[in-house]
């Protein structure tokens, strides 16, 4: 009986694993390009020279002008506004992230050469620091180790925000880990970040107009 139960568990586990791999493979193109148009995926962006390839292109339309969206993007960081994503998931790994629902003037002085912190200094030290390699007000922010955040106006009251994540060349083991786990997690968190930023920027813009 014990052998039979063990056999059933192994079959169930193997079936679940095969199903998960099949689901990830089928959805991969969708979640690596979520929200982005073919033209956006093909166009060159600031910071492309830093990557071996684009690992993902995610985009969203925001019903607010670029100058109303930019301050929210400019203040991202663990020690500032957070990342507007699932902080409860981020804090499962002791990242100590708390999302902010307002623009803070003291956090609006970001410039090239500064760094953005991804997780708690107390827990992780200075390892999770991403250098700001390029920045143009109301247009783009490029982070080494993440990618390019690019804002473009669609009209006087509508913006488009595209995040192009920079990929690197890895060995087969890391590529497998990216395929099975890290890329889907990155999509989940970055999608929520885009939606969270959109919600905040649109709400603030509507209140101001």
Give a nutshell description of this structure:
Keywords: Membrane, Transmembrane, Transmembrane helix. The protein has 209 residues and is of the alpha+beta class.
Provide a descriptive summary of the structure in words:
The chain has six helices and six strands; from the N terminus they run H-H-E-H-H-E-H-E-E-E-E-H. With 209 residues, it is an alpha+beta fold. It has one domain (33-208): START domain (Alpha-D-Glucose-1,6-Bisphosphate, Chain A, domain 4). Helix 3 (66-74) crosses helix 6. It starts with a helix and ends with a helix. The model has no long low-confidence stretch (mean pLDDT 92).
Strand and helix layout:
Blueprint: H1 2-32, H2 38-42, E1 53-62, H3 66-74, H4 87-90, E2 115-117, H5 121-124, E3 129-136, E4 140-143, E5 147-155, E6 158-167, H6 172-208
Antiparallel strand pairs: 1-6, 2-3, 3-4, 4-5, 5-6
Helix pairs in contact: 1-6, 3-6
Secondary-structure element series: HHEHHEHEEEEH
Structural class: alpha+beta
Low-pLDDT windows of residues: none
Overall residue-averaged pLDDT value: 92
Shape: globular
CATH topology: Alpha-D-Glucose-1,6-Bisphosphate, Chain A, domain 4
Helical region count? 6
Question: Which percent bin holds the helix content?
Answer: 40-55%
What distance separates the N and C termini? Answer: 70 Å
Our estimate of the beta-strand percent is 15-25%
Question: Main beta sheet, described?
Answer: 6 strands, antiparallel
Secondary structure: number of strands: 6
Radius of gyration using CA atoms only: 19 Å
Our count of domains comes out at: 1
Identify the strand order in the major beta sheet.
1-6-5-4-3-2
Instruction: Provide the CATH architecture.
Output: 2-Layer Sandwich
The CATH superfamily title: START domain
Q: What is the CATH class name?
A: Alpha Beta
